[in-house]
Every structure is written in structure tokens, then in C-alpha cells.
Amino acid sequence: MITVTVNDRLGTKAQIPCMPSDPVKLLKAMVAAQIGRPVHEIMLKRQGQRPFHDSLSLADYEISDGVQIDLELNTGD
Amino acid sequence: MADLSIEEANKIRLSMGMAPLPVPGAAAPAGPTFKQAEELLGSDEEPASTVETRQAAAFDNWQKLQDEREAAKKKEQRLAAIKKERERLGRFAKMEGKGLADVEDEDDTAWLKGSKKRAKKIAKAEQMQRELEERERQAKEAMQYTEADLAGVKVAHEVDQFEDGEDQILVLKDTAVDAEDDDELEAVSLRDKERLQEKLDSKKRKRGYNPNDEGEGSLLAQYDEEIDGKKHKTFTLDGQGRTVEEVEAEAAGVKKPKRVAISLDILKEEVPANDYMDVSEVKMKKPKKKKKTKSSKRQRVEDDDEIAAMQEEGVDGMDVEDSITIAAKPKKKFNEDQSFIDDDDLQAQLATQRQLALKKRKKMRPEDIARQLREEATSTPQTPDVMDTTESYEEAAEADDGLVIDETTEFVHNLKANILDEEEEARKRQRRGTSRISDGAKSSTAARVDDDGDVDMGQSYAEAGEEEDRTINPPQSNLTETGLEAEKTTDEGLGATLALLRQRGVITSSDSGDTNALYRERQKFLADKQRAEEAAERLRKEQRERERNSTRWNNMTPREREEWARKNNVAADQVESRKLAEVFNKEYKPMVELKYVDEHGRHLNEKEAFKMLSHQFHGKGSGNTKTKKHLDKIAAEKRKLAETSLDTTRSGGLSGALDQQAKKNKFAGVRLQ
């Protein structure tokens, strides 16, 4: 089990427990439950990189214990 | 905001159909958890091709690694235990043999007795060793392949092809496996050389039939090779460092070609070159006691010519002989070795030659020198002539050297132009005075003589000389300052005028010789013609006189006479005209020259003449400006003709040319020569 930190740089920061094999979709669902924003409005990405795809797992993005991920507002563009 | 708790997370996960997170309170499985490998083994995928299979295989791998480590550890432990045990046993094992402490109790006699035995033992061991070595050596020899083994083997080359001092590696020649031939050796490099030679030979055009060949070889010898096959020259080794053919030849009594002995001492250590003579080599000569010989020897060196005389005298027979041998030796040497082997030899030869030349050269004696000096003294009167000639040469050179006109000389010239008149006057006055004096003294000497006959000694020699010159040849008034020849003037006659025109370049006299010759020829021709005509006339007159005196003329009527005269005249005219025509054909050379002259009296060149004719033909001349330009040009030409070429005050003439030249050459002056 790993703990991932999700942070938008506006004061919202959350620690999410999950497994490396979890898909990004699950992480988003858990983030949505934590911060109260619908899943489709959540965009997760590493800083300076492209946003994560829902279908890939956290291990695919090499997300391990204690990694911090940026949270942005997905406008659907 | 509180972090997401695991229970809540598990709820979400379960709702999404994912496995719940392990709760910390529950018992965690030992070691890392892996997927089950068994469930994936059934699939037909390649092992380790996907992440899943790899992850599944991971546990097995891990387990294996762990087992191996365990096994290694156990083995190490076992080994350590064995070692420890052995050491323990060794520590307590009893030492065998004799130590220092337990020496046998032997006395000297026993040791002596024993020593013999020991010596025998050592000798036996040595013998054994030697025998062993001998056996080994024999075995090795038996193994070796020596030249004795090569007996009877053919070599596919000529003996001469193996040059001395060159290693050749012979290999077995390629033959078919089932061939009956014996083994044959050949050198690869030599074979290549032969092949190349053959190729080159085949390229050469062979002459089939040589009529000049006198019965050498068979008929159509060029096909011998194709019919009989190529002859290969071989020799056979006999295993004793010689060839079978050689031995046979020797047995048959064929003479061997002479061999040239070559020294192989190149490896001998050479004496290091040293510029200084070795002290040990120097030998001191004992001074000879005979004084007589010494003196005679010195004499010989001084004057070799006296050798003959000395020989006659026979003062010292031995010495004379010695000198002769010395003189004869170099000559002999010359004849013997003409080819110089070394540079040193050459140097030695040259030295002897030089010595001979030095001896041959006559030694100058004081009497000779004195005579020579006397001769020189007598011949000195000739030298002034020579000096004169040289002086004249120098003068000529100076005269040739030309005059340099630059800005300075120009400036001086202009200054002088003003002073010139005064100077001239002064000079005239002086001349008048001197002439008066010379009249009074009735002598042509230049020295100024007073009324009492004293010579003015205050004068310097130079002045006196100058004055003398002046009196002897009075200064010519037409000398100019520039040193150039003054222009001629028209008041001196036709020749001067012509010269003037030539100077100014109005008349070019380049082809004057040619035209002159032509003119002369023409004049001569005309004169000759005249003379011939006169002679013919005279002849006719004489003939007429004779005829008139004859009886026949007296008997003729006037009409007949007239007829007769007319006939005669016609005949004479014919003869004359024929003669004239002949002369014309032979000698007359017409000289045609077209000259066009315009209204100003100028000679026109081709282009201008064409222009003029064209204008005349079309009845229309040039326009206003062109005409004006033309007139200006003519005026300028006239002006140029009028002015002197040496005039430097105005632009144009010589000074203009000088300026132009100076500007062109970028020098301040112009060199005239």
C-alpha cells in the first residue's frame, strides 16, 4: 500500500492510500470523495507533464509511496 | 481536511469493484505478496512477455534466490567447520623426523666411513642424470629432420637462381594426389619471379624466322616449347650440401667456373674513427748521424732540377737513387690502379698529383725576380699609352653619359638666362685685354706677363691653365648652358635650314636613304637614256654624211633622195625604239606616289584625303564647328613649327615634353641620353 499526496497549489492537499496497481480512475474517485469535486472535473498530473489517463495504473506512471501529484481543474478541453 | 481513512477508501474501492486495502490491524502475509503464478501458467503467452506474468514469476524468482543464498551460506559453514577440525587435528599431530635437538651420537670415524658411501651415492645420481640427458638428446635427434633427409629431393629451380646472401624458403610443390612424381621443392618468390618473366616474354613479339641466324637451333625453334613442353630446370639434392648434378659434373671433369672470394669480415669491429693520432702509433725517428745526406736531401727538395747534375756528380749515390724511386713511384701507381676504390684513395692520388705539380713548377729565385723587375722597368714607356687609351675611354663614357635635367638645373638655367648678357660682355672684355697683351709680348703663352716681363705668381696653376686654354682656343659664342646643341637658324644656308627642320621633326628622314637611292637610279637612267639617244643621233649623222658623199647619192633624183632618207630614218627609228624598249624593260622602275594637298598646302594622309574627296564628290563640306576645329588644329600645327624645341619659357616644346615625362615617371627630372 502506498500513500499519494494530491495537491492543487491553492491550499488543497490530500493524502490518499492506494495500491500501485490501482488505475488512475480509482485514485480520482477517491480524490473526489476527499475534496468534494466531481470526478470529471479532476485532472491529475505530475508537474510539467501531461495529465494522467484514467485507464493506466499508478505503477505505469511510476507513482510510489509519498509521491506528490498536481491536481488541476479539468475543463474538458 | 482530514485525510482519507482506509475504511472509507476500502468502501470506495469495493464500490468500484477493486480489492480492499489491507487493514493495518489484520495479520500481514510474510514476505512480499505476489500474484499466483499457477493461474497464469495455463495461458499460452510467452513467459515474461507482460507485466502480469513477470510479476507472477517474480515470487518464484525471489524464492529461488533466497534458496540459493541459504545453500551458499550452509556450504560455507560446513567448509569452515571442516577447516577448523583439520586445524585442530594438525595442532596436536606429532612432528616426524629429526629435530635439532635429537642429533645422532656419531664420532668422527663413523662420519668418515659414511662419507665414502655418500660420495658414491652422489656420483651414482650424477651418472643417472647424465644418462637420462643422453637418452633425451638421442631421442630428439632421431626426431629431427636434417639435410640428410633431403637426399634425392628435386628442386624445381636452377642453382644460379639462389642468390647468395638471400634466404629462400622452399616448399613442396603442388601436385595431384595420385601423381607418380617424386616430391619437388620450390621457392614461392622465385616461382613468382619466373611466372612474371614468362608473362613479359610472352608479351614480347617473337620473331619466327631470322634469315640472319646461321643455323643455330632447330628449324622453327619458336615452336619447340609448344611441341615438347616447357623445359623445367631442376637439380637434385644429395643430402651433403651439394647437388647431384654438381657431383656428376665434377666426376665428368667439367671445370667449375671461377668463384670470387668475398670477405665476410663485415661484422668485424671497426676501429673507432679518431681525429687525433694515437700516441702509440707515433714513432720518433732517430736523427741520422750523416750530415752530408741531410743537406743534400734539403737541396733536392729546394730544387728538383738539380737532381740530374747531382746524379752525375755522384755525391751520394744512395740518396739519388732514393729520390728517383720517389719520383717514379707515383707514376707507377697511376698506371696500376685507375679505378679508385675509396674516397681516401682518391684523396691520396690527388695529393701525390699536387706534389708533383708543385715540384714541376719552377721555383722563383731572387735573380729571376730582379730580372723580371728590370723587364718591367723597360716596358713602362708603353704603359702611358695604355693609360691614355683608358682616359679616352673614360672621356667617351662621360660624353655618352648624357645630361640630366631636373628642377634644379632648370632653375639654375633660368637664373643664368638673366646673367648671361653681363657675363658675355665681361668675357668679351677680358678677351680683348688678353689679346692686346699677347700682341705686346709677341708670344702665344698663356701666362699673363707684366710690363717688366714678370709672370704673375699670384695666379694659381688652375687659373693659369684656364687662361692658356682660353687664349689658344677662344671660347665659342654658341656654347649653351644646357650642354645641348643649339638650334640652327635659317640664316646659315639651306643645309642649316634642313637641319633645323629635321630637329623640329617637321621632316622625317627615316626612309631618306631609300628614296635617295631610287631618285639617283632614276636620274642615272635618264642620263643614260639621253646619252644613248645622242650617240645614236651622232651615228646617224655620220652615216648620212657618208651616204651623201657617195656616188650613188649624187646620181639620185631629189625625189629618190627624199625616199631614201625617209626609209633610212624609219629603219633607224625602229632600231632605236627597239633598243629603248629593251632598256626600259631592263632598267626602268616606276616610282608611284600619290600625294594629296589641301587648300592650305598641307599633305594629307589617307584618311584626310578620303574625306576631302568625299566632300568634293558630295559637294558638301563639314559643319561650322568641325571646320573651326580643323582650322584651329592647323593653326596650332603652324605655331608649333614656328617655335624652337629648346624653348623652356613657354609651355610646349621641350619643356612640355619634359613635364609630361616627369609626370609619367613620377620623377622630378628627366634623363636625356
From TrEMBL, chain A:
Residues 2-71 form the Ubiquitin-like domain. SMART domains: UBQ (SM00213). The keyword Metal-binding does not apply. Signal peptide: none annotated. Keywords: Ubl conjugation pathway. PROSITE patterns: UBIQUITIN_2. It comes from the Eukaryota. This is Ubiquitin-like modifier HUB1. It comes from Periconia macrospinosa. The lineage of its organism: Eukaryota, Fungi, Dikarya, Ascomycota, Pezizomycotina.
UniProtKB/TrEMBL annotation, chain B:
Residues 116-149, 522-552 form a coiled coil. It comes from Periconia macrospinosa. The keyword Heme does not apply. Residues 365-377 have a biased composition (Basic and acidic residues). Residues 199-219, 280-321, 357-404, 416-491 are annotated as: Disordered. This is SART-1 protein. GO terms for cellular component: U4/U6 x U5 tri-snRNP complex. GO terms for biological process: maturation of 5S rRNA; mRNA cis splicing, via spliceosome. Residues 435-446 have a biased composition (Polar residues). Residues 302-321, 391-404 have a biased composition (Acidic residues). Belongs to the SNU66/SART1 family. Keywords: Coiled coil, mRNA processing, mRNA splicing, Nucleus. Residues 285-298 have a biased composition (Basic residues). It is found in: Nucleus.
